[in-house]
């Protein structure tokens, strides 16, 4: 398949590039400039298009089968303002998708965020993909707005589109200040690691598995509009996840639970239903196992 990829230098995008290229797919990866480096080393370089996505022109997108849109603004805390998040995650992204559509592309994979569900996630043991969206911060709010606009546009134009709401992804290339890299580095150093009591229940999924699932969705030409959660199906407390990393690295230090306070507004269970897919087809919706 010939795939156009945005966000190819990002955490998930870099891992997706390695996986897709290893499967012999042709990738046109868009990056801001030649100084933008991937988060993990690539086994083989894709064809790079060095432009901001709002500077890409329709002619450069012709001849491709699918867009995998992973690029996002301010995906990690502290989040940027709602105005700046909306400018990229909705307005510029939507303009880019419309150019791809005019270039003849009818298959779109959009990376969403689990945090689009916001405080509604607390109402479910397993959050279904058709749960209402109630984000409480700028980045997830901009992604939720984009989800609504993109699906409306896809319905109107009979486009094959899948929005993937990705849960707690971790792995190679992840930002050093996030939980998995932080505790892994501390474990290797032999020092103690201070954290909260770790009672929060999350669904952690390795980025390499996420990359595989994104490619599978891209290859699945089904003429549907759908929303799907991406997770491992193995919910566990933060404390248990930390213990596992500690054991893997045979650390001589200790995990000190309760040394840090929970964040204000902490959600204690945030776990996806990964079995169901919310489907929209011909102006009616359905749920499938």
Please explain how this structure is put together.
The chain is of the alpha/beta class and 289 residues long. Helices cover 30% and strands 23% of the residues. The chain has 6 helices and 16 strands. It has a 9-stranded mixed β-sheet, with helices on both faces. The chain has a 3-stranded mixed β-sheet with strand order 12-9-14. A two-stranded parallel ribbon has the order 7-10. β4 (66-69), α2 (82-102) and β5 form a beta-alpha-beta unit. α1 crosses α5. The protein starts with a strand and ends with a strand. The relative contact order is 0.15. The mean pLDDT is 95.
Q: Any key phrases for this structure?
A:
single chain; about 290 residues; alpha/beta; 9-stranded mixed beta sheet; 3-stranded mixed beta sheet; 16 strands
